[in-house]
Amino acid sequence: MAKLEARNIGKQFMAVQGSNTKLITAVKGINLSIEDGQFVCLVGPSGCGKTTFLNILAGLDKPTEGEVILDGHPVNETGPDRVMVFQENALFPWLKVVDNVEFGLKMAGIEKSKRHERAMHYLEMMQLTKFADAYTYQLSGGMKQRVAIARALAIDPEVLLMDEPFAALDSQTRDLLLVELQLIWARTKKTIAFITHNILESVVLGDKVVVFTKRPGTVKKEITVNYRRPRLPEDENLQPYYRQVIDAMKGEIISDKDDNDNNSDGVT
Ligand SMILES: Nc1ncnc2c1ncn2[C@@H]1O[C@H](COP(=O)(O)OP(=O)(O)OP(=O)(O)O)[C@@H](O)[C@H]1O
Predict the structure, then answer these.
(1) Which residue out of 51, 195, 253 has the highest number of ligand 1 atoms within 8 Å of its CB and is therefore the one to mutate?
(2) What is the value of pTM for the model shown?
């Protein structure tokens, strides 16, 4: 049985343009199955609805049609079973690193000594033990993202949803985190859905790379990356997978995001 399943997901937004309102179809007819412990990367042209789709998986947004199934049951709200990690880390600058990691546990009512122990465990996993008492402004971008990942893991979600978590990082830091994330994933056996614009990143990380069409976004192709781990970005054996993703993306890249308006479903 799939861990997380999207069944015929569609989402329309009412967008205001001047004095008109337009109905925009962001995503349409998305069917996707993610197995327990699987690492799935989502790629597609800008504006094709990847974030909309991830928000729907997280319960942060409601689909106009379709449903999200977790462990065989429909879910339509946020929950500790599905945790998001964003591109710009959403850490609290007034809290120490360890308190940031403890935050979700505190909200869940877990008592102090237990949550501290759990936070320190994940900080150690992310090699941040020395920085437990630092404030987030004292950390580099890569370290902040590692704190954000530690915070998400500490909640022990069923599924980790990651929206371009490495996009704002320099390439060296990103390459390090690509390897670290694979090691953490191997240890924690989490199910992960990960959005990226970076095709190399998608084939380094993904067991499966899901290519979206341009808007309205739907699944164009699923590419299985059957290759040993941990994978390094410079490994030339990833090239055939990289090419498959590029080929699937062909025809989906458009120069002007507004061209998408041709796909909108109506004007009121
Ligand atoms: N709250 C909203 N109201 C109106 N339109 C929205 C809203 N959220 C998203 N959209 C529109 O839905 C479409 C899909 O946006 P979304 O951010 O999901 O795409 P994306 O693939 O994640 O883009 P990117 O790769 O650039 O981050 C876009 O046309 C966007 O303008």
Answers:
(1) 51
(2) 0.91
